[in-house]
Design a protein that fits this description.
Layout lengths: L1 H29 L5 H25 L10 H10 L1 H36 L1 H15 L3 H12 L3 H24 L4 H9 L4 H36 L8 H10 L3 H29 L8
Helix pairs in contact: 1-2, 3-11, 4-5, 4-7, 4-9, 4-11, 5-7, 6-7, 7-9, 9-11, 10-11
Amino acid sequence: MSWFMQSTTSAGLLLLVFWLAMWRLNVCLSGCQNSRVIKFLVPLIFGLTLLILWEGVVRIFAINPVLLPTPSAIAVRFVGSLPVLWADFVQTFVKGALTGYAVGCTAAFLTAVAIDRSPFLQRGLLPVGNFIAALPIIGTAPVLVMWFGFDWQSKAAVVVAMVFFPMLVNTVQGLQASDHMQRDLMQTYAASYPQALLKLRLPAAMPFVFNGLKICTTLALIGAIVAEFFGSPIKGMGFRISTEVGRLGLDMVWSEITVAALAGSAFYGIVALIEKSVTFWHPSQR
């Protein structure tokens, strides 16, 4: 027993030394010249360090894999379940999240333009929208599933409800970002509202619009996964997570979480790249 305690203590100290060494390495790299290689290496080293520590802690302290499987076990299950994970990805992300994201953000953008044009809608619709946005998804998702059925359409409806008002609020705020002097100048040129919208207000609103789009990337995936907890076909990330938790298949649960994390990060990154090309003139992109 004493030998086991000593070996556990030694292994724990080695993990601590490894963590401190990697931390020091990252601090040194962060202080180097800001380049693309450094920007890539710092998060990569940090992520790999966390995975190695995770693996070591689980093995050294013999944590039950039902509670916390090792990254290696998750990787083995991930590779062995690629067809299932792909089908779940298509059902949840491609059909549910992306469709709801596109419909919700487009509807919110058009509504924001209408609100910007109408003072009545500014005073009447926005307070109602804030009230509806405060409703918890755990309460609205079952209702929407009952209305739109158990397939991906109901998940897209939940996503629309989640992304609509964050996108609406950001776009409305962006359309009001231009100052009064610029608007007066457009009136001096006898510009119509569509001309002022296209040449002044929309360009000024683009940073706000993309801020809303980036926020909604994460909300869309969360909404689609949570909606599947309340009824879905026999595929989908949310369905698989709830099913495997009941079967104590935590390695599969973590595999689905990995797919969701990768998909969400890639989605956010694509929107950020588009933002960089569209709003290259903004100080935040310099």
